[in-house]
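User: For this week's homework, look closely at the record that follows, marking any run of repeated tokens, and judge whether sequence predicts the tokens.
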Amino acid sequence: MFSKACEYGIKASIYIARESIGGNRVNLKQIADSINSPEAYTAKILQQLVKHGVIHSVKGKMGGFEVDPSLLSEIKLVHIIKAIDGDGLYHSCVLGLNECDAKRPCALHKRIFMIRKDLQHMLEVTSMNDLIDDIDNGLAFLKH
């Protein structure tokens, strides 16, 4: 459903947010290790998340990545996905056709419409706090 980069971006954001709640900044190596991602690839993903304001980067010896814990209820999944993958999830053709819309629909266009609406709603209302709560309460996990 999401690109590999987006999957890593979501996991990295959750990891950074959980650490930030505890008052910790995390470095690239810690993040890459925690999400099982190559460091160079993770660095590119983190740059996108910083550029779009999902996470914050602090330079220097005591630097690293963090999120303001007071903003965790405002950071929604949609912010992470748009930062990494854009909004093609809502608009691109599920069959990969160049021309696909309500006027010239592909074979799945009408069938996927409501699923996309539901997905869009879920991404727009699910916050980092929601995801962290699920992990902390044992309802979800980040890593096997």
